[in-house]
Amino acid sequence: MSSRDRILARVRRAVGERGPEPEIPRDYLRVHGVRTPAESTDLLAAHLAEYRAKVHRTDEDGLPPLLTRLLAERGCETVLVPPALPPHWLAAAAGPVRIHDRAASTPSELDRVDSVVTGCALAVAETGTIVLDGGPDQGRRRITLIPDHHICVVRVPDQVVDSVPQALERLDPVRPLTWISGPSATSDIELDRVEGVHGPRTLEVVLLGAQ
User: Where do the LUD domain residues begin and end (predicted)?
Assistant: First the structure.
């Protein structure tokens, strides 16, 4: 028996047999206001910008040249891609070398990659939050935490919800959920802001279909 099994066994003995879980009242507001899909997208964009993310809008035809331009502006030589990123998103013949997400990649190898491009699971308008769940177009959590530059594509309006309660209803709780509100940042006791501590220093969000 492992230490984990022994600890869990002690917890079970301490709590004893329990009956059915009581129903939790959910009488809070599920959303603050009524919005059209366009208004929700505008609110998401405003909150993302407030968190210092860079927001871009384009359609399917404009996405490949936009991604090419964003990567070129940073001088990217390598870009990390999840296993099921749509191939046409990075269709340019010339551009950064594509690094594929591999389980064998070490943190040091990922740290040497210039950028990562992913999709997302959802985006929450009221909080300006992007949610990743490790889906095929997003890859494993660490590929979006170690590289210094993350470009995340959000399909609008399909992947935009107004509120966190609405998001939770659509997300699978057993998946590895990562909630991102702007670039990674922290502040010390004197409120000196430092970016890029727990994740990418630069977050760019592309609202796809929001032309």
Answer: 108-208
